Amino acid sequence: MEAAFPPSGESALLARSPLARLPDRLLKYGLSVLAALILALIVFFFIRLVGEARPAFAKTGVFGFAFDNNWTPSAGHFGALPLVVGTLITATLALVIGVPVAVAAALYATELCPRRLRSPLTILVELLAAVPSVVYGLWGIVFLAPKLQGSEQWVADRLSFVPFIGGGLVTIPNYFIAGLVLAIMILPIVSAISREVMSTVPLDQKEASLGLGATRWEMIRMAVIPYCRSGIVGGAMLGLGRAIGETIAVTILIGDAPKLGEQLFGQGYSLAAVIANEFGEAQGVHRSALFAAGLVLFVLTLLVNGVARGLVVRSARKTGQSSGAGSTGATALVAGAAGGA
Amino acid sequence: MSAQAPTGELVARFGVSPARRRKDRIARGTILVATIVALIPLVLIVYYLLKKGLGAWSSDFFTTDPTGNTFFKSSSIGGVKSAILGTIEMVALASAIAVPIGVAVAVWLVEYGKSSWFAHTVRFFVDVLTGVPSIVFGLFIYIVLIVGTGSSFAGYKGSLALSLLMLPVVIRSAEVILLLVPAGLRESALALGAPRWKVIFTIVLPTALPGMVTGVLLAVARAAGETAPLLFTAASTKNSSYDLGGFMNSLPVQIYSDVNSPTTSVVNRAWGAALTLVVLILLLNLIARLISRRSRLA
Asked: Would the CB atoms of A275 and B125 count as touching at under 8 Å?
């Protein structure tokens, strides 16, 4: 596609004058500068965030901040461990509940359901992505939490001998509700990516296993799942990234108790929720600590998303679409990102 | 491979045993149940949104600001006019910023950057942006435009936070669509002597337009539902505002501030606002789907 004529000899006749080439140059360099500016902007933001978080780190050090179990703004104590643990508890719950359901829905849509049902089913699951976070929060706190309180209490009473789950009184905002709603929120993205990856399983592999006498389930277990395992794991990791960064729904549903997760059905706090809740009235070191919490959140999601992207792209590349360098992954990522976070 | 007639013995040896058949049935049943479980929350949310939301809708709901006194139950608490206005204004400005920049970067990636190391770096950073939690974008804008300038919240700052959020979605979706434009179209235009910029503006972009509109609308829909980045960049005032330089209300922020109210009518207003927001987003999604169906690419 490059016009690779050296401007000499006959081709000099065809070559454009420098003036006529000016708009082309302008466009090319203008766009390059724009792309470079975006990189610069991200780096700039990151540096400023670190700068603003520094006063909080200066007191206790980065590790002191992240692993100190005491978040008491009124006393000037800023240890983010309860927040980090709260974030991890809700995100883990979301994965444990959401991923099996999402993968099953994807399996049903790609392998089992009648052809005519396929696209309505896909659209319905994707509709979940169109619901904004704050609406999930509203629905969770007004409808879901009161409805489930009884059964949560029942479970807590029956399992009173289990350390983290049993015993205690079920409060209305709690870890479990936050995790459950997060599971619903990550369902569309995990399902979309799983579906995308499953649709790349070569037909002849599936047909071969059926031809050898496998039942549908054996075909799924032996031909489909091994083939797209890394893609599914990548999708789950992207869901994890979403769950870690999710703010408003969790803020509404988790309560505001900065204590190390003692009880599944008790109140907690998460990194994102603490920022949304306390930023308004925070001053001085407190505000800086919230920036630091944002930084920890940022780095956490970067790590998770980096691994996830690697897995999705690798899975896409394995299917031989090396030219697109994971174009399947890219479209799935776009589809996932487009869902209302 | 010989064409043997299946005898009873063969069926017994190669047929599906009852145990395997049972396992198959159980597994398929479980998958079906899980799929239904996945759809239950959707049904419940839609049902509740319609039931509670439609109950809150009235002509006053769309024409008054949420300035009423919420303490006395008798007084009217007001509607969400300022929130709807604010959402539309801020999202429009955010799109006006994010869409041209996003499409330009995508054009650069496809037409010039291709697979150079620089283009890969840009792609990597854009993907990084995709995963950044929305509240962190709010912090970015807060640090640069509010701490940095010593000024207060403003609608346009909220728009900038939203546009940061939209940018990666616009870039990646536009890139995917631009890659689908047949190389033959570009090459024939180049062969006819058209300069590069002309090819881009008169061949590539018009061909990709319908597909790109889809990605853009999905990005807009995403931005419209965001609360977190607006909390400390634009929010909040209760009055209608046409001034993007001042405080601005928005639907998500209004819902967020109404959620925990002890007053039932205020919570009902949150439901009404939620239904409004979801309808708005679904409309954008629907238009996106219709346009993408008309696109000749993809």
From this structure: no
